[in-house]
Backbone:
């Protein structure tokens, strides 16, 4: 197999090596503005290489728009400085059953093709001594989604953080999403979607896991 084939196969197999997004040691030495400026330059080169005329009014602003979108929107979740503060509260009401936050919007991009991954996440936990504000779960999901991703790693990153901050293993995370790299290129399968599920603690127990799955299968509000 030559190198190009290896690269393409790796992308299609969606291999990921670690729970951490692979980042360079100097990933955040430059400011966002510097990054936007540099990406703007490089994206202009890509467009010109494709034969596009950047003096055209409609195209001239595209390199800047793409660069800003990468740094500030699509991939803002690469930078730990943007991580939401996951403040927790004492479980004063003594709620000890399952809490499910469902239908959380996923807008991500696959790291192999830089094409959109869209879908939703469902997260549940069983509070021990701590509870977390509901919207913090949505924010955490969004933060990890907004980086070049593989779906398997995305659920693990969300699960890991919630387990740490809630000080319990009793957390479950599922993501169901469509990958544009599957629907619009390669196999071009328009109908398939992908579900990943990770959990710990009491969710290892199939009865508890089924309770979660039954809730998320319910008709939505
Ligand atoms: Zn892909």
Residues:
């Amino acid at each position: 197999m030559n190198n190009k084939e290896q690269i393409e196969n790796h992308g299609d197999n969606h291999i990921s090596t670690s729970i951490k997004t692979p980042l360079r040691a100097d990933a955040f030495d430059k400011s966002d503005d510097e990054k936007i400026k540099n990406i703007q330059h490089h994206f202009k080169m890509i467009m010109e290489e494709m034969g596009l005329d950047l003096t055209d009014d409609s195209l001239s602003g595209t390199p800047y728009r793409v660069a800003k979108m990468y740094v500030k929107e699509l991939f803002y979740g690469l930078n730990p400085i943007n991580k939401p503060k996951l403040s927790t509260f004492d479980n004063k009401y003594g709620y000890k059953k399952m809490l499910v936050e469902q239908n959380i919007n996923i807008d991500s991009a696959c790291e192999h093709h830089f094409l959109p991954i869209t879908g939703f996440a469902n997260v549940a936990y069983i509070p021990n001594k701590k509870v977390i504000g509901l919207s913090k779960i949505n924010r955490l999901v969004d933060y990890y989604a907004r980086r070049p991703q593989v779906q398997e790693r995305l659920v693990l990153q969300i699960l890991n953080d919630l387990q740490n901050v809630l000080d319990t293993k009793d957390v479950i995370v599922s993501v169901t999403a469509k990958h544009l790299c599957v629907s619009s290129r390669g196999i071009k399968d328009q109908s398939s979607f992908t579900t990943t599920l990770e959990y710990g603690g009491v969710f290892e127990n199939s009865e508890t896991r089924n309770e979660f799955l039954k809730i998320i299968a319910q008709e939505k509000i």
Summary: The pocket of zinc ion is lined by residues 11, 110, 112-113, 179, 181 (CB under 6 Å). The longest strand covers residues 99-110. Residues 32-49 form the longest helix (18 residues).
